[in-house]
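call fold(seq) -> tokens
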Amino acid sequence: MKIVALAGGIGGARFLRGLRSAVPAAEITVIGNTGDDISLFGLRVCPDLDTVMYTLGGGINEEQGWGRAGETFAVKEELGAYGVGPDWFGLGDRDFATHIVRTQMLAAGYKLSAVTEALCDRWKPGVRLIPMTDDQVETHVVIEDERGRRAIHFQEWWVRLRASVPALSIAAVGAEESAPAPGVIAAIEAADVVLFPPSNPVVSIGTILAVPGIRDAIAAKTVVGVSPIIGGAPVRGMADACLTAIGVETSARAVAELYGLGLLDGWLVDEADADVRVEGIEVRSRPLLMTDADATAAIGRAAVDLALELKQEEEAL
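ret:
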């Protein structure tokens, strides 16, 4: 069985780990969000790609869900002593090594997809991880504060400001001019099913879908999503702030409608949202909290089972 999953950061990475455990014989291709990518200290940082790679490769800091296990911060402290910022983005020493290798390879002319493949040769995540595009796409947020109305990088809004200043708008800058990375469309076309993990629907899944060609390719497949919203609140993170910025209610129903009929065939919601109905989309309820490895694997299995069921129904028509 061939599965394609779109993924952002922590929630997506943990879902993928459960999915890999639930269907160990499946060939899983992960299309990773690169809209969060940012250049810091002269290095290209790809937070979502790295979170997936570290989580599936056994190197993640499990407590915080991002960054490396056993991390130290000597380089960050030395940069601070020199007065070099930003001080709000905490790159650790082990993490720096990944970004140095990536930046050197990019400078040598390798595309991000080739660099990601090379980095995964070390981590062996058990899936094929492909960035959504080799082109530079960055998510920017328009805010208004004491300095007036201005656009800032998503990471500054998310990490430094903790989304405390309302976003007036969110844009994936460069997405319209980008192209899917090599292998992305072919993987989707070959997939038996496509899954949307419980990643941020606006700045993770939504950004991937903004790359021309990806949405249309996915629309031709059987697609099942897992709600990142339980009982009107995000499971973790600040997805509600992103949804508010685009005028969407923070609810399992509203996120399914955001993806839309014609793209989404099935939708897994938590038992707290068992009364959710979305016209034209098969909605099933089950526990969605990824409390441990078994619970996470069960969610992955449920998503695959629903997708295969819907695929069989479509083929029978």
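The chain has a mean pLDDT of 96.
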